[in-house]
Amino acid sequence: LPVLSMAAVAQRAFSTYQIDTDLVPAIRNGRRVPLDLGGIAEQGPVALLTPAGEFLALYEPAGADARAVAVFAPF
What we know:
By secondary structure, the protein is an alpha+beta fold. The longest helix is centred in the first third of the chain and has 8 residues. The model has no long low-confidence stretch (mean pLDDT 92). Strands 1-2-3-4 form a four-stranded mixed β-sheet. The radius of gyration is 12 Å and the shape is globular.
């Protein structure tokens, strides 16, 4: 059976959002971040990816911000 990366699975299962590099440390720690995911989070959490395509976490809208649902990124 083929083995898929976490990033590939996340992209198939969730809507995705590519974040700016400066948000990576906050997302790795599960902090609220200033992202407006309202338009793409209609069907559940959004997979956040780095510009290089690394899957970091699932986030959901929280007002004008986004909050962590689950963090997968190693420290």
